[in-house]
Amino acid sequence: MRISRRASVSIAVIGVVALALGGCASSGVRTANISTESITPIQNTPVTSSNLPAIGQDGEVQTADAGMPGQPTDLEQPAALNPTLQPPVDQFGQPVQVASTDDTSFVTLDAVGAVPNTPGRDLNGGLTIEKLLGGWTIVSGAEQCKLNLTYTAKTGTSRYRASTPGCGLAGLKVVASWHLVGTQVQLFDEAGDIIASLILSGNRFIGTLAGGQGISMVG
User: Fold this and answer.
1) Which of 2, 22, 205, 218 could form a disulfide with 198 if both were Cys (CB 3.0 to 4.6 A apart)?
2) Please, what is the end-to-end C-alpha distance for the chain in angstroms?
3) Same domain (yes/no): 20, 115
4) Are residues 113 and 214 in the same domain?
5) Does residue 204 sit within a domain?
């Protein structure tokens, strides 16, 4: 009986060992099968990259644009108009021609002096001799002179008589006649030499004397 029990125990132990070895063998087979499976390669795809904007000390994003904040960066987009850069106008709302200080052929408002505070004549609709007849005030710097334009023909000329009674300006006190050429008034002395030329600007005239001194004429 003892021999039979021992034989039974031995057989049971051998069976357990056999099962353990069988399990290890099957596990090794599965592991080998998993390791030998082929892995599908990943296809090459283009990769794009860009530089990240810099972050300022206060956490704001810094860009490389040279423009002002909030302004368009498109070079083809026109810049916003600056009202401070609009051309200057005179007291009648007409644009004033501004020239370089190195060019003495143009007359600025500073050169002609202060204009008398008068409404001026209505010279709209084109200039005519009739619109210019009568008294005018010529201003040059701090000085003023009265100018009379008449419809009386100057003998031997195509001009009309003019005068500046009591004028202290050397270039104007010798005015003897005048002539209208388009929008330009020309003043002449007794010898027929031109001594001043003024062009229409709004409801007045601005120009220069023969010596280059700026003047304006209002009436």
Assistant:
1) 205
2) 155
3) no
4) yes
5) yes
4-38, pLDDT tens digit by residue? 555 555 666 566 556 655 555 455 545 445 445 55
DSSP string covering 115-143: PPS------TT---HHHH-EEEEEEETTE
Expressed as residue numbers, the domain containing 116 is 109-218
Sequence-ordered alpha helix ranges (H) in 61-161: 109-112, 129-132
Distance of CA 65 to the CA centre of its chain: 18
Work out how many domains the chain is built from and give that number. 2
Tell me the per-residue pLDDT of 180-217, one tens digit each, with 9 for 90 and over: 999 999 999 999 999 999 999 988 999 999 888 999 99
Q: Which 8-state DSSP code applies to residue 136?
A: E
**Exposed/middle/buried for residue 131 (C-beta within 10 Å: 0-12, 13-18, 19+):** middle
Type of residue numbered 80 = A
The answer to whether the beta carbons of residues 116 and 139 sit under 8 Å apart is: yes
The residues pairing with 147 across neighbouring beta strands, listed in sequence order, are 136
By the 8 A CB rule, do 199 and 216 touch? no
Residue 217 half-sphere exposure toward CB, CA atoms < 13 A: 26
Kind and range of the H or E run holding 5: helix 2-35
Q: Which tokens go with 62?
A: 């810094």
